[in-house]
């Protein structure tokens, strides 16, 4: 099983490396935007999937990251510096936004974060002196690595892929460390976790802050990809789109956002044949998925695997003992 | 495992990207077929499709039949950017659209980088001010129409003060800024400056502010439905000041939706199917016969766009994008040459359009053209 | 048996006009299993919550191994060496039994940052496995805790309370809802643990049979005050206690 | 002064319609812990049912309203509860949130594709005649909206408080377990709640469409305001949603006029954050009867 998993990962990675060579520019662009949105969805997966705190603010964090990158790189500063600033800013704002989560949960938290996204949008649109207002900022440069310009779409794709892999590995490390267990503890049973020494207050804030920082990183990748940013790219609809990615893929599963972002971004492509009806079919599919499998596609998959396993006629003495207890 | 399969399917899908065959010339139409801009994008697209059929029936362009691929932006800027790229990948020689300025400003970067001529229906001034040598309008930007309105306010109405209601997006902001600049130039005071959101439903507060400013005139720069809602509220609160607008305010849709509240409003339109010109009347009839609804200025923009594209390629004489773009700069098309261009039109070196335009007034349910304003 | 682990000094607490606890004092010594019993509304829960720092007493104070618990958050209390179980089921249902136990111990290992960069299990797998086999849960090690039976989850809950090697464990109705076979197993394991590690227990329980056979000493509360204190045998024979329970 | 009065009166008139949407929203929450992100679309769609009745089927307008109401109660009440919400109830909030968001998109697209992408005029129940009060202009429509909303809310309160079915519904909302023991058919009561929500949404639709025009994209702003109203007023109180609706209507107008029209929605949003942080149960709400 483990070898199979590693083999699968290697195959996917190889696919991602070969992909742009089989693609026209558009395909490469779509793949790049999949990578970018996966990073944002990964962050939300930490906040929501692992730590159980709903947030509709991920688009706002992407916005903070994207504007930091746009403003700084257009002023001639290196991309990497803008990433540090953007992610740092998101981390701090995420900490602040985490505070309401200490008081309220569920739909209340959803609305506080929704309000935050709306306010962030208003600031991006109205504060023209800083953000360029509704026109946004045009001509965000793509960074160069070791003197190599990334203006070419395929090169920028590989750059994005590199950052994406780094982000995924750190995420993997994080959720498999004791911190990951503490996040899950917060989601599963915050009171019990607290009584076992988990500082739930700190963990909640961190879940928001780290998730937000991933949003910032995603924005920092997006601005040079699109080479243009405007407030409309960071509205509530985008937050909902990211939420959809996490939930459809499987919230709380490491690969959930990868799959979810892929579907949300690529599905319109597959449904193109349906022309004007595709959004309708798409929405109907989501409703159907939520009705039959609320834990998302990976939840469905793991349920399937569990069902197959339990059919294996293994001699399990422990079952007898278990039934007795 | 599942992921690998998804990816493989994705790769396969993208693999099937065909090249245009020799006898046809492929054009891409990227437009707002769904989302808030659906009405606008559909009128634009319908007119283009009608134009393509007529051009093909008349023998096509350079002996080739036109083939048009249509892409739906969902009125989303980033999607439009991706789709312009897709249209180019699919082999489009030239891009038509988008109509929403917020989308155009993003996707025109793609055509610029790849040297693809693009004819847009957007009116935000910034589009032709960014030094993009491949972007062309099919109707003029707000900075071209505002001086005409300003002249009318100043000389026609003798207004000393004006209240402005505008929609706070790319379209409205561009128009607003151009208008306010003209007002300053002419010494007319802007006494109330009220912005509203796209899709805003409640205009009570906006109207209260416009009303209490006691301006000599009210200038409205909103999308169609918002215009109708605003007009109804203006009438409800008994606002007496003359109401002046630009193209959208005088759209047939606004007159219909506002149920009488549009009576008496005046304004400037770049393109209107109510113009007495025989070419425009003929177009309006063909359009409503074919689609069962009345063409508006967005349909006219689309129609002009496809004829502009066809004429420019014909005049360039070969399928060379750079040459087509060069031809379009400083080009003039007259109605004598191409009747379906509807009005004599010329482009400057930035891709901006000059054309005659109209001063109209709504009387009852009718739009009456009061005056023809020369090109500037 | 002289080291004081928990010291309750003159605790009073009232809600509105009702005195839930009045002037209660007692000590609990190292290695003791103290039962805290009393009829419904006798003030057990209020007292319990004062010990856990969740309620602030109007007067008096609580110290654990000499440290004041007033105003301490649950996670700080845990760091002071206080473990607890809950009345209702309190495991992490979507995590494996092993992960439940590692989570129960990990916050006591190193600092926040050393944990992030340290091993994934915070070096606790062996200890967790020991605890799992101590409670005879070996066959369920990798199952999701939520998929276990009620009684099994109670065992996991208890095992979690011990992972951090606490000086004092508060057991809140451990016997509630557990079937007889399981109850015997639980009691026997708790006794063994107490013997082997000299961990101090305070038990709140309604099941008299269970309390009497588990505890070494019992404190009886009625109407917010201590009415009796002694070994299980003494309490069993105490007329005041019998009256309080039967109601007079 | 007359400006201020005008803003207040207009705010109350639209606020009363928001309140209808908000009340349905809180009813669903109480009965089944459902947060309906498609609530705005629930107000948008009935107008089209009615238009189908009057323009396609050629029914006289009052009968078309009845037709629209029946279709709405069936589809947005019965079908929505049985086919969408019921299967998801055991799985917590998130799937319902996602499914209702998707449902909102689905409803918008259906209306756009099968009716029209364009805004439609909608006949008004009340005349648009106006009169002046201290310089503020009030239309019969304003008064009508307030009156109809008030009557609907009072009737709902009486129904919930004075009838057997209504009390059973309240019992279900407060404690479904106990209600079940008392012999209440809990599932049926929840179903009634969904149907009442659909009826209130239809009413809101009839009142709002003459002013806002019927359009597929109208649901979004209405839904947002309904959430705001419900939270500000209090999630577990019918009265709360009423006060919330009126308050949001007025504050929206005032913040547009006196704060900044560019930051208009910021006023209600900041109010929302403050309320959630300081008084999460809402202005009139009591602490949640049901905690999860």
From TrEMBL, chain A:
The chain crosses the membrane at residues 34-67, 79-102, 108-124, 156-175, 202-222, 234-256, 276-301. One of its GO terms (cellular component) is plasma membrane. It is found in: Cell membrane. Pfam families: BPD_transp_2 (PF02653). Keywords: Cell membrane, Membrane, Transmembrane, Transmembrane helix. It is a multi-pass membrane protein. GO terms for molecular function: branched-chain amino acid transmembrane transporter activity. InterPro entries: ABC_transp_permease, LivM-like. This is Branched-chain amino acid ABC transporter permease. It comes from Pseudooceanicola pacificus.
TrEMBL record, chain B:
One of its GO terms (biological process) is amino acid transport. Keywords: Amino-acid transport, Signal, Transport. It comes from Pseudooceanicola pacificus. This is ABC transporter substrate-binding protein. Belongs to the leucine-binding protein family. It comes from the Bacteria. Coiled coil: none annotated. InterPro entries: BCAA_transport, Leu-bd, Leu_Ile_Val-bd, Peripla_BP_I. Residues 24-364 form the Leucine-binding protein domain.
TrEMBL record, chain C:
The keyword Transport applies. It comes from the Bacteria. Residues 6-248 form the ABC transporter domain. Pfam families: ABC_tran, BCA_ABC_TP_C. Keywords: ATP-binding, Nucleotide-binding, Transport. GO terms for cellular component: plasma membrane. One of its GO terms (molecular function) is ATP binding. This is ATP-binding cassette domain-containing protein. The lineage of its organism: Bacteria, Pseudomonadati, Pseudomonadota, Alphaproteobacteria, Rhodobacterales.
From TrEMBL, chain D:
It is found in: Cell membrane. The chain crosses the membrane at residues 6-28, 59-80, 92-111, 143-160, 190-213, 225-251, 263-282. GO terms for cellular component: plasma membrane. GO terms for biological process: amino acid transport. It is a multi-pass membrane protein. Keywords: Amino-acid transport, Cell membrane, Membrane, Transmembrane, Transmembrane helix, Transport. This is Branched-chain amino acid ABC transporter permease.
């Amino acid at each position: 099983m483990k070898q199979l998993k590693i083999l699968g990962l290697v195959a996917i990675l190889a696919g991602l490396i070969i992909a742009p060579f089989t693609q026209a520019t558009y395909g490469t662009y779509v793949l790049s935007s999949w990578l970018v949105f996966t990073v944002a969805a990964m962050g939300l997966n930490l906040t929501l999937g692992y730590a159980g705190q709903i947030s509709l603010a991920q688009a706002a964090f992407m916005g903070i990251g994207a504007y930091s990158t746009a403003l700084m790189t257009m002023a001639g500063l290196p991309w990497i510096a803008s990433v540090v600033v953007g992610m740092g800013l998101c981390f701090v704002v995420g900490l602040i936004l985490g505070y309401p989560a200490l008081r309220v949960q569920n739909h209340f938290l959803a609305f506080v974060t929704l309000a935050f996204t709306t306010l962030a949008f208003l600031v991006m649109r109205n504060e023209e002196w800083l953000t360029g207002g509704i026109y946004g900022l045009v001509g965000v440069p793509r960074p160069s690595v070791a003197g190599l310009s990334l203006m070419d779409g395929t090169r920028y794709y590989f750059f994005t892929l590199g950052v994406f892999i780094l982000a995924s590995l750190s995420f993997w490390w994080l959720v498999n460390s004791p911190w990951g267990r503490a996040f899950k503890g917060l989601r599963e049973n915050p009171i019990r976790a607290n009584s076992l020494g988990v500082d739930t207050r700190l963990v909640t804030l961190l879940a928001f802050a780290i998730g937000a920082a991933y949003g910032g990183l995603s924005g920092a990748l997006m601005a040079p990809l699109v080479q243009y940013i405007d407030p409309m790219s960071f509205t509530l609809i985008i937050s909902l789109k990211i939420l959809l990615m996490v939930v459809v893929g499987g919230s709380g599963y490491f690969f959930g956002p990868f799959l979810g972002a892929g579907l949300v971004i690529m599905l319109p492509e597959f449904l193109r044949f349906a022309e004007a009806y595709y959004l309708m079919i798409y929405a109907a599919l989501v409703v159907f998925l939520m009705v039959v499998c609320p834990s998302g596609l990976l939840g469905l998959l793991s349920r399937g695997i569990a069902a197959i396993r339990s059919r294996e006629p293994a001699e399990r003495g422990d079952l007898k003992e278990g039934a007795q207890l | 495992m599942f992921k690998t399969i998804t990816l493989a399917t994705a790769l396969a899908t993208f693999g099937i990207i065909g090249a245009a065959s020799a006898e046809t010339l492929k054009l891409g139409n990227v437009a707002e077929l769904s989302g808030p801009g659906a009405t606008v994008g559909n009128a634009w697209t319908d007119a283009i499709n009608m134009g393509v059929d007529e051009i093909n029936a008349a023998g096509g362009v350079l002996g080739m039949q036109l083939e048009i691929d249509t892409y739906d932006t969902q009125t989303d800027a980033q999607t439009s950017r991706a789709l312009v790229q897709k249209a180019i990948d699919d082999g489009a020689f030239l891009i038509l659209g988008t109509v929403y300025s917020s989308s155009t400003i993003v996707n025109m970067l793609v055509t610029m980088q790849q040297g693809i001529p693009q004819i847009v229906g957007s009116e935000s001034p910034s589009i032709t001010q960014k030094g993009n040598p491949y972007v062309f309008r099919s109707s003029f930007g707000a900075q071209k129409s505002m001086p005409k309105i300003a002249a009318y306010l100043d000389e026609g109405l003798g207004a000393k003060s004006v209240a402005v209601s505008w929609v706070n997006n790319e379209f409205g902001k561009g128009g607003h800024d151009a208008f306010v600049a003209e007002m300053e130039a002419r010494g007319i005071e802007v006494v109330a400056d009220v912005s509203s959101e796209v899709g805003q439903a409640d205009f009570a507060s906006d109207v209260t502010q416009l009303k209490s400013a006691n301006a000599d005139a009210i200038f409205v720069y909103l999308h169609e439905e918002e215009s109708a809602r605003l007009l109804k509220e203006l009438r409800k609160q008994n606002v007496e000041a003359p109401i002046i607008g630009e193209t959208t305010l005088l759209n047939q849709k606004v007159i219909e939706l506002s149920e009488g509240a549009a009576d008496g409003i005046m304004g400037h339109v770049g393109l209107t199917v109510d113009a007495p010109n025989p070419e425009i009347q003929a177009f309006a009839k063909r359009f409503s016969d074919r689609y069962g609804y009345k063409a508006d200025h967005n349909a006219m923009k689309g129609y002009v766009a496809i004829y502009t594209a066809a004429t420019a390629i014909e005049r360039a004489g070969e399928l060379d994008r750079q040459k087509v773009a060069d031809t379009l700069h400083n080009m003039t098309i007259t109605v004598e040459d191409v009747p379906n261009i509807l009005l004599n039109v010329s482009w400057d070196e930035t891709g901006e359009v000059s054309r005659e335009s109209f001063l109209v007034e709504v009387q009852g349910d009718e739009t009456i053209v009061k005056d023809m304003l020369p090109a500037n | 048996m002289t080291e004081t682990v928990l010291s309750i000094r003159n605790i009073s607490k009232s809600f509105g006009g009702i005195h839930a606890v009045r002037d209660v004092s007692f000590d609990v010594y190292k290695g003791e299993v103290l039962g805290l019993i009393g009829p419904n509304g006798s003030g057990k829960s209020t007292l319990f919550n004062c010990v856990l720092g969740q309620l602030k007493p109007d007067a008096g104070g609580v110290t654990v191994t000499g440290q004041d618990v007033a105003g301490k958050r649950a996670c700080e209390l845990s760091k002071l060496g206080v473990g607890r179980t809950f009345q209702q089921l309190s495991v992490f249902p979507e995590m494996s039994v092993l992960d439940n136990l590692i989570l129960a111990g990990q916050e006591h290992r190193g600092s926040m940052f050393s944990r992030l960069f340290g091993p994934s299990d915070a070096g606790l797998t062996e200890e967790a496995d020991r605890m799992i086999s101590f409670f005879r849960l070996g066959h369920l090690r990798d199952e999701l805790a939520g998929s276990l039976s009620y009684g099994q989850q109670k065992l996991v809950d208890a095992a979690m309370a011990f992972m951090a090697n606490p000086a004092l464990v508060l057991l809140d109705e451990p016997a509630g809802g557990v079937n007889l076979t399981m109850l015997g197993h639980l009691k026997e394991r708790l006794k063994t643990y107490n013997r082997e590690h000299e961990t101090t227990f305070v038990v709140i329980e309604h099941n008299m049979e269970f309390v009497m056979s588990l505890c070494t000493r019992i404190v009886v509360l009625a109407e917010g005050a201590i009415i009796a204190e002694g070994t299980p045998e003494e309490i069993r024979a105490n007329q005041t206690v019998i009256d309080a329970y039967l109601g007079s | 002064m007359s400006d201020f009065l005008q803003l207040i009166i207009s705010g109350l008139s639209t606020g009363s319609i928001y309140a209808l949407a908000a009340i349905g929203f809180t009813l669903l929450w109480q009965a089944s812990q459902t947060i309906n992100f498609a609530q705005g679309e629930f107000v948008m769609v009935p107008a089209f049912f009615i238009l189908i009745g009057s323009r396609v089927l050629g029914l006289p307008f009052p009968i078309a309203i009845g037709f629209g109401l029946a279709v709405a109660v069936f589809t947005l009440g019965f079908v929505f509860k049985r086919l969408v919400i019921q299967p998801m109830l055991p799985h917590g909030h998130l799937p319902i949130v996602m499914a209702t968001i998707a449902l909102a998109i689905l409803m918008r697209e259906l209306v756009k594709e099968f009716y029209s992408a364009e805004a439609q005029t909608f006949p008004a129940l009340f005349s648009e005649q106006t009169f002046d009060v201290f310089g503020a202009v009030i239309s019969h429509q304003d008064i009508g909206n307030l009156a109809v909303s008030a009557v609907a809310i009072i009737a709902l309160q009486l129904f919930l408080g004075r009838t057997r079915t209504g009390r059973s519904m309240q019992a279900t909302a407060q404690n479904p377990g106990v209600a079940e023991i008392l012999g209440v058919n809990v599932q049926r009561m929840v179903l009634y709640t969904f149907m009442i929500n659909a009826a209130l949404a239809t009413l809101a639709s009839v009142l709002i469409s003459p002013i806002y025009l019927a359009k597929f994209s109208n649901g979004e702003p209405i839904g947002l305001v309904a959430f705001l109203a419900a939270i500000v007023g209090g999630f577990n109180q019918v009265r709360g949603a009423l006060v919330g609706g009126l308050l949001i209507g007025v504050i929206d107008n005032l913040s547009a006029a006196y704060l900044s029209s560019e930051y208009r929605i910021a006023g209600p949003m900041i109010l929302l954050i403050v309320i959630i942080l300081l008084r999460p149960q809402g202005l009139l709400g009591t602490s949640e009867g049901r905690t999860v």
